Amino acid sequence: MKIACLADVHGNIHALEPILEQMENVKYDLMICCGDMIGLGPFPNEVVEFLRIEGFQMLLGNCEQSLLLGGLEIGTNPRPDDTWRRSLQWTANELSSENRAFLRKVPTRLEVNGDGPISLLACHASPDSLTEGLYEATREERFIQLAAKQEAGLVAFGHTHVGFQKVVAGVRFVNCGSVGRSADGDTRACYASIETEKNGGEMHAEVVLRRVKYDVETAAKAVVRRGLPRELADSLREGR
To answer: Which is nearest to 175 in space by CA: 141, 124, 214?
Structure first.
């Protein structure tokens, strides 16, 4: 089974389109977006509609939750409060009623049962929360706690905009990185390609974090042109 798992597009259609072009070379059985399709970027409607047309299973992220609830809470977002709030307010004004209604129906998690013992849980930030940031350096005890609660052998998520994968207590944790707002110093978009196969009578999962170049400068100029805070354009250029 081949699964494409991406996260945190954040209204960046310029980053999303090249990923889909690359993905056309692989026949994925399932395509998942682990939330934060919108917020912090200039094309929220275009991104939601693009993902819908392409058949992605979308999950709720903290940006969608904040916007739909109207609270515009900060969560664990490291950006200044004013930038975060201005961005979500701008997105709230731009988002169409049709896309708003669609996002209200999006689930917070998706469980996929593959052939054999390999199964996958997809969520936005962690299985416990839409705002808990999981990093490779997160303490081992926390991963052990999360692993003990899971029936799935693989957990895919995003939120921190920094991709990684590690196995703890028999569970593979995969942060898919960010399509539209990389925060690891690499401006390229990032997503996870997951393939399960049977080997010697057992099922195994191979996970590759793929990076894709896109026109960052055009995307950054669109941020400013559309009236979003300039800081969001600068962070695209710097990959932070």
So the answer is: 124
Short-list 161, 210, 209, CA closest to 63: 161
Does the domain at residues 2-238 carry the CATH identifier 3.60.21.10?
Answer: yes
β-pair type (171-175, 202-212): unpaired
Domain ranges (residues) in the chain: 2-238
Which pLDDT tens digits describe the chain residue by residue (240 residues)? 899 999 999 999 999 999 999 998 888 999 999 999 999 999 999 999 999 999 999 999 999 999 887 654 444 444 446 888 889 999 999 999 999 999 999 999 999 976 555 689 999 999 999 999 999 999 999 999 999 998 889 999 999 999 999 999 999 999 999 999 999 999 999 999 999 876 765 668 899 999 999 999 999 999 999 999 999 999 999 998
